[in-house]
Specification:
Length: 174
């Protein structure tokens, strides 16, 4: 699970900041996207709740979420707040989800997500303009549907949806 800042060149209002929250299942590559007007532990907690419901509607139980060590997920590297769990960490614990942190300075551990963000830059943000938060939200819903139905080489040219129907399982999100 990670957050991407929507590129400024894509946003019509120069005062507006928009963020794309992304979660990808490590096995099936099933991807859940949502837009937020801020990047915070509150937004991260809300995204986690929405993602758990979204996967549950597909018969999938989320057991573990892997994130980087940013403030929006954890206080583990804060000198003053190290022992105080963030709202995101409390939400994960309340939902019975294990929160796994990526070791610092190892972006390769988040490679599926980083590749998907690069692909979003090339295919989605390069050709779209957003006029509001709700406009980005609607377009991300379409992007998510396209991504989850597109055949991928690592999945033996199946889409994420085809993989899900073929293999019932519990997932680990990145």
């Amino acid at each position: 699970m990670d957050v991407k800042v929507a590129p400024r060149r894509c946003i019509a209002d120069p005062e507006l900041l928009l963020f794309q929250y992304t979660a990808i299942d490590a096995f099936s590559r099933l991807r859940f996207l949502a837009a937020y007007p801020e990047q915070s532990t509150c937004s991260s907690a809300d995204f986690l709740k929405r993602l758990v419901k979204w996967y549950a509607r597909r018969g999938i139980r989320v057991e573990c979420v892997q994130t980087d060590n940013d403030f929006k997920f954890t206080n583990c590297f804060s000198n003053s707040k190290r022992d105080i769990p963030t709202l995101f960490e409390k939400t994960a614990a309340g939902l019975g989800i294990r929160h796994k942190l990526i070791r610092p300075h190892t972006p390769r551990h988040n490679s599926k997500l980083e590749r998907s963000h690069c692909k979003d830059n090339e295919e989605f943000y390069a050709s779209n303009k957003f006029f509001s938060f709700h406009n980005l939200q609607k377009q991300l819903t379409v992007r998510q549907r396209q991504y989850n139905t597109f055949p991928m080489r690592p999945l033996n040219w199946c889409s994420t949806n085809q993989v899900l129907f073929a293999f019932p399982f519990c997932i680990i999100l990145h």
